Amino acid sequence: MELMIAKLLGFVLVLTRMSAFFLVTPVFSWNTIPVRIKVAIVLLVSVFFSTIVPSAIHARQISALEAILLISNEAIYGLALGLVVVFIFSAVKLSGRIIERQMGLAMAQTFDPLTGERTQPLGILIEMIFILLFLSANGHHLFLLIISRSYQAFPAGSIPTIPLLVAGTVRAGSTMFIACLRLAAPMLAAFLLLLVVLAVFARIMPDMNILFISMPLRVGLGLLMAGVFLPFIHEFVAEFADWMGKLLPL
Asked: What is the distance between the alpha carbons of residues 141 and 248, in angstroms, rounded to a whole number?
């Protein structure tokens, strides 16, 4: 009887970590995916990993308080893993927002059907292209690899190291800002050059309405630079996968 309870508790712990991870992970947390599909994916993956991953639960009497604490630890660890992945993926959307602000399109918002939020159209475009490239490179297999490595580092029922979780999350946040600036750096350089040119024209021809001229120039330059540099975004897919492997608290 105690062995059956330990097996059942081990499956619940695996299910808790999976549910917390897929709750916040990009692609799987989108509103466009039906809830039944999400539940089926989580259950299927949980059944698979519960049969192969090591467990720290032994056939002994476990109190209700211990079970609650173990489930809470699994939920915290799963959310920490998902949060690191969210931070890395948010670099693409954040770079799009930086570019849109330079283009003067900060107020241009549209409804994002994937997340159900109000966001900028260029940011959605860049994020969608990155997601498609990521999935085409079998990036969803990377999520399963992340889960497998997490059970090698912290088996089900073990207590994860809180400082390690916090350090990994903080490093992922800093990496997000560095990555978004790297993605937006060519655009920022082009807009800086445009501002210098407009400033020179303002000094040469004081009667020119610089504000009236700068708006279409900024939008046109932004669209031109986006069209030029979007094909190179696939080079960041492998780099982002490498970052996830280094920043995950494993």
From this structure: 16
pTM of the model: 0.77
- Sign of the dihedral through C-alpha 69, 74, 79, 84: positive
- CA distances, 212 to each of 46, 197, 219, 220 (Å): 58, 15, 12, 14
Q: 235-247 and 162-204 helices cross at what angle (nearest 10)?
A: 140
Structure tokens, 110: 């549209």
Q: What is the pLDDT of residue 250?
A: 59
| CB-neighbour burial class of residue 177 (10 A; exposed 0-12, middle 13-18, buried 19+) | middle
CB atoms under 10 Å from CB of 113, counted, come to 11
Q: Could you please report the per-residue DSSP string of 187-226? A: HHHHHHHHHHHHHHHHHH-TTS-HHHHHHHHHHHHHHHHH
Decide if 203 contacts 173 (C-beta within 8 A).
no
At 192 the pLDDT is 86
The pair of three-digit structure tokens given for residue 32, joined into one six-digit string: 């466009």
Backbone conformation region of residue 184, classed left if phi is above 0, alpha if psi is from -120 to 50, else beta: alpha
Tell me the CB-side half-sphere exposure of residue 203, using CA atoms within 13 A.
Answer: 5
Between CA 57 and CA 195 the distance in angstroms is: 63
d(CA 39, CA 34): 9
pLDDT at 58: 60
Residue 191, phi-psi category: left (phi > 0), alpha (psi -120 to 50), beta (remainder): alpha
**To which H or E segment does residue 111 belong?**
strand 110-111
